[in-house]
Amino acid sequence: MVATSSGETIKAVFAIIVSVFALSLGDAVIKATSLSLPLWQMYILRSALTLPPLLLIAIKRGRGAHALRVSGWSVLRSFLLVVMWLSYYVSLPLVPLSLAAAVYYTSPIFILMITAILAHRLPSVRACLAIACGFLGVVLVIRPDATGFDFATLLPVLSAFLYACAMVLTSAKCRDDDPFVLAIVLNVTFIVFGAGLGLFSGEEGAFLLGPWQTIDLSLITTVAVLAALILIGSVGAAIAYQRGAPATVAAFDYSYLLFSTVWGVAWFGEWPGLFTYLGFVLIIGAGFLAITRQKANVAALVK
């Protein structure tokens, strides 16, 4: 992997923290508003509202429509991410949420494994310690109930693996792509998948393939907020994995759980216990361990 300067690493860390802040806030908004759209309709509406500002920004940044150059790698990246979200959300009615989340947050471990394989080298001891420390913190925060395991747990495993593949691909093949163009491709892919799933919709009460819901002002307002948050989250993640070493960024990806707990306390009165606080310490410690300093540069964790 190519060494990353300290300035680029700081930008990458900031970008991923902003990204998970927005994504966690979006999840809190869905919970607080009791939004009950079928998943395919959510994909279409949210991305339809996200695309116009993304297009304007991308064209302005690129000084013309030619800026919207789309690479095959960006399409593959978007496909991986959309299938990732599908597999994760489909698993939620089948396995406990805590178990699904614990399995999903093994994605940084997959990132280390994939980058090590691609580099034909073993990951550094410090990299392994950072990810192990972060994962232990996740386990302490969510304390999954292993008795709920069944074959449906393979879905969040698949989700974690696909996310890792997409982020390594972003770092290796999409580093020079405009992050706003990457976000455009992702949202177009969401709409295409949503429309495809919509062809099979109509089952009342179904989470994935429920019928189209009536749109009113309240619904549009909520979806618009979610669209803004997914815009920030998707662009932020693209920038982070373009600028930083995947394993370094992955360690700070765990901060999603910190923000989720803040929303839980502020909006729902869900105060964390002692084990959660211990988990926070481990998660934050993992973030600092992930940065290996070599004089003026910060080297990639997978060498």
Secondary-structure topology with pairs:
Layout: E1 4-5, H1 6-33, H2 39-62, H3 72-91, H4 97-104, H5 107-119, H6 125-142, H7 154-173, H8 179-198, H9 217-243, H10 246-253, H11 255-268, H12 274-289, E2 292-294, E3 297-299
Antiparallel strand pairs: 1-3, 2-3
Could you characterize what this model shows?
- With about 300 residues, the protein is mostly helical.
- The protein has one domain.
- Strands 1-3-2 form a 3-stranded antiparallel beta sheet.
- Strand 2 and strand 3 form a beta hairpin.
- Helix 2 runs antiparallel to helix 8.
- The longest helix is centred in the first third of the chain and has 28 residues.
- It is globular and about 55 Å long.
- The chain starts with a strand and ends with a strand.
- The C terminus is likely disordered.
Compact overview of the structure:
With 303 residues, this protein is an all-alpha fold.
Please give a handful of descriptors for the protein shown:
about 300 residues; mainly alpha; three-stranded antiparallel beta sheet; 12 helices; 3 strands; globular
Question: How would you state the average pLDDT, rounded?
Answer: 79
Shape descriptor reads: globular
Quantity of strands, as a count: 3
User: Largest beta sheet, briefly?
Assistant: 3 strands, antiparallel
Backbone CA Rg: 19 Å
Read across the widest sheet, the strand sequence of neighbours is 1-3-2
Structural class: mainly alpha
Order of helices and strands: EHHHHHHHHHHHHEE
Can you tell me the number of structural domains?
1
